[in-house]
Amino acid sequence: MDFTQRKGVSPIIASLLLIAIAVAAGIIVYIYVNSLSGNLTQGGGAQVSERLQMQSYSFSVSPPTCACAQWVLDLNMVNSGGGATTISAIYFDGTQMTVSTPFASPATALTTIANNAYTAPSSSYVVDTNAACTSGAAAQFLCFSAATTKTSYSAQDTGQVFITFGAAQTAGTTHTVKVISLTGATYVFTVTAGRSG
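-> structure tokens emitted (197 positions)
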């Protein structure tokens, strides 16, 4: 009778081989994750180079003494990212606004500038009740302190987006403002009619 003897790896050697493979795989994963996190945190953690944020807003009938139905939304913006960003489009509840250059004197009637989004520097806030800015029925007219546009934001730069409406807004309703940059970055903000925040 012929007996064939088969030899295999002993259980101890097999266990050691499995442990060695697991340790090697763990080291590879550790090196990969460590290099990835190092790239993400390089430069102070500013991997997202542009980051447009809303600092505050005011959404109400303006001017305050206005007897008309036109509302305005005033957004104060800041680029908290490490790189520059440029606004290319602005949407309010899915409707694209016409991005316009701010205007100084003479003032313009609120009824003629509905659905516009004016981009202005933070130093050029709206002057809608100033006698030097308006004429006639001052409470229904609007102008800016300077005809200066502001669509590009460098790092840590601030500015203002001012949206006009042709109809009254219902106080307490929530609305969405979407700002799109030239690079395709999308910034979504929520505002409530009749409130500031």
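Residues 42-47 have pLDDT under 50 and may be disordered.
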